[in-house]
TrEMBL record:
Transfers mannose from GDP-mannose to dolichol monophosphate to form dolichol phosphate mannose (Dol-P-Man) which is the mannosyl donor in pathways leading to N-glycosylation, glycosyl phosphatidylinositol membrane anchoring, and O-mannosylation of proteins; catalytic subunit of the dolichol-phosphate mannose (DPM) synthase complex. Pathway: Protein modification; protein glycosylation. Its main location: endoplasmic reticulum. Belongs to the glycosyltransferase 2 family. This is Dolichol-phosphate mannosyltransferase subunit 1. It catalyses: a di-trans,poly-cis-dolichyl phosphate + GDP-alpha-D-mannose = a di-trans,poly-cis-dolichyl beta-D-mannosyl phosphate + GDP. Its EC number is 2.4.1.83. GO terms for cellular component: endoplasmic reticulum membrane.
Length: 207
């Protein structure tokens, strides 16, 4: 690609064997390219971002899931989009253009669509996919947003975009295909859904 990069893997007790695979990759590609930074238990997406940022040396940070639900083939498109518009954030969207979701049952699709719809109605964030986590950030912008965001869990992604709009940061979008994981288990459950709704109402009340 001609772009200097490093891959920082934050594993927080995931049930799908992420850490073991990352250790193998570290041996193959070297610890200068693959940086494994595990944590003993699930502590939330927000703290994972902060943990990862401490070790990031580049000017831009791409956040993505490590189970290949987010395909690396889209990363060059994110970079091109950022360069074209000099965006502060480039967000992958499943709900615009050629974007889509594959492998989810109807219940999971309804939860995602419903969460996105409610968020659009209440917060009007100006971006089409609020609950996705495949994004490119300018490093200093990510740091500023982390200082502002207070949410944990899945509502955190939504707050990042809402706060970015409040602070006047520019956001570009790239349509992506999200494919449900083939191996392992999803950690989305009833508790996360309840937390999401509580977080959404809190964000509505404070923005």
């Amino acid at each position: 690609s001609g772009i200097d990069f490093e891959i920082i893997i934050i594993d927080d007790g995931s049930p799908d064997g992420t850490q073991e695979i990352a250790e193998q990759l570290e041996k193959i590609y070297g610890s200068d390219r693959i940086l494994l930074r595990p944590r003993p238990r699930k502590l939330g997406l927000g703290t994972a971002y902060i943990h990862g940022m401490k070790h990031a040396t580049g000017n831009f940070i791409v956040i993505m899931d490590a189970d290949l639900s987010h395909h690396p083939k889209f990363i060059p498109e994110f970079i091109r989009k950022q360069q074209e518009g000099d965006f502060d954030i480039v967000s992958g969207t499943r709900y615009k253009g050629s974007g889509g979701v594959y492998g989810w049952d109807l219940k999971r699709k309804l939860i995602s669509r419903g969460a996105n719809f409610i968020t659009q109605v209440l917060l009007r964030p100006g971006a089409s996919d609020l609950t996705g986590s495949f994004r490119l950030y300018r490093k200093e912008v990510l740091q500023k947003l982390m200082e502002k965001c207070v949410s944990k869990g899945y509502v955190f992604q939504m707050e990042m975009i809402v706060r970015a709009r409040q602070l006047g940061y520019t956001i570009g979008e790239v349509p992506i295909s999200f494919v449900d994981r083939v191996y392992g288990e999803s950690k989305l459950g009833g508790n996360e859904i309840v937390s999401f709704l509580k977080g959404l109402l809190t964000l509505f009340a404070t923005t």
